[in-house]
Amino acid sequence: MMKNAERKPKDETPMRKKRGALMVYEKLREDIQWLRIDPGSALDEVALSKTYDVSRTPVREALLLLENEGFVQFLQNRTSIVAPLSLHNQAAFLDTFILLSRGLIRAATMRGTSQKARMETLVREYADKLEADDVEGAFRAQLELNRSIAKEAGNRFLQKYFLEAQDASVRMKLLYFFPHLAQEQKKEAVARLQAIVDAMVASDPDAGDAAVRDAILFEAKVIQGGLAPRFGHEMSIVQEEAR
C-alpha cells in the first residue's frame, strides 16, 4: 500500500499579499475620500510602501483598485495622482444619484423600518455636530443614516449602486456643500433628513420619494451657491473721470 505523499506547506504569500493590498486600498481610499490627501496630489509608491509597511506590489494593486473607482489617476509618465475633482459631469451624477435614492427610499418605505430609534439618533447627531461645526462628524452621521436606509430597502442591487454613488459624492460635499452651508441653512439641512426618517417610520413611499428628492436638490442649491462669484460682478472696472 502506497503511503500518501507528504503534503507541502501551503504557500501563504498570495494571501498575505492580498491582505496587504486590501489594507492599503482601504486606508488610502479613506484618506482620499476625506480629503486628508488633496485632489491632484502625487502618490509616491515608495513613500506609500513605507507608510503602510508593505512592499510596492500591494501598493500598486491598491492604486489599480482605486483607479477603477475614480479616486486615482495614472498619468502618461506612469506617475499616479489623486484624481482631481471635476465638476463637468456633476449634473449627470446628481441625476443618477437622485434616481437611485428615490428607488431606494421607495423600496425601504414599502418594507417598513425596525430602526426608528437608530435613525432618530443619527438625525440628532447630525444636528449636534453641525451646530458644533464638526463637519466630519455630521457627515459621518448622515452617511450612516443613508447606509441604514439602504439596508432596510432589502434590494442588494439598489444598495450596491446607491452606496457606490454616495461614496463618489463625499469629496464633492466636503469641498462644496458643508463649507458653504450658511448658519441659517443648517436647520433646513436637519429638517430634510428628518423628513426622510418620518417617511420611513410612516411607511409612506410617496412622502419618502419627495423627501429624498428635495434633500438632494437642497444640497445641490447650496453647492451652486458656493460656486457663485463673491465680489467680481459687483466691482466697477470703469475708471472714474478726474474731476
What does this structure look like?
This protein has about 240 residues and is mainly α. It has two domains: about 15-80, Orthogonal Bundle (Arc Repressor Mutant, subunit A), CATH 1.10.10; about 90-225, GntR ligand-binding domain-like (Four Helix Bundle (Hemerythrin (Met), subunit A), Up-down Bundle), CATH 1.20.120. The chain is built from nine helices and three strands; from the N terminus they run αβααββαααααα. Strands 1-3-2 form a three-stranded antiparallel sheet. The longest helix has 22 residues, at about 90-110. The radius of gyration is 23 Å and the shape is globular. Mean pLDDT is about 90; it is low at about 1-15.
Number of helices: 9
Shape category: globular
Helical amount among residues, as a percent range? 55-70%
What's the architecture of the largest domain, going by CATH? Up-down Bundle
| Category from helices, strands and their pairing | mainly alpha
In total, how many beta strands? Answer: 3
Largest sheet geometry: 3 strands, antiparallel
Number of spatially distinct domains: 2
Question: How do the strands line up in the largest sheet?
Answer: 1-3-2
Q: CATH fold name of the largest domain, please?
A: Four Helix Bundle (Hemerythrin (Met), subunit A)
Structural Rg: 23 Å
Features:
243 residues, Arc Repressor Mutant, subunit A, Four Helix Bundle (Hemerythrin (Met), subunit A), 2 domains, 9 helices, globular, disordered N terminus
Short description:
With 243 residues, the chain is mainly alpha-helical.
Compile the SSE list and pairings.
Elements: H1 13-33, E1 42-43, H2 45-52, H3 56-68, E2 72-74, E3 80-82, H4 90-111, H5 116-131, H6 135-153, H7 156-176, H8 183-202, H9 205-226
Antiparallel strand pairs: 1-3, 2-3
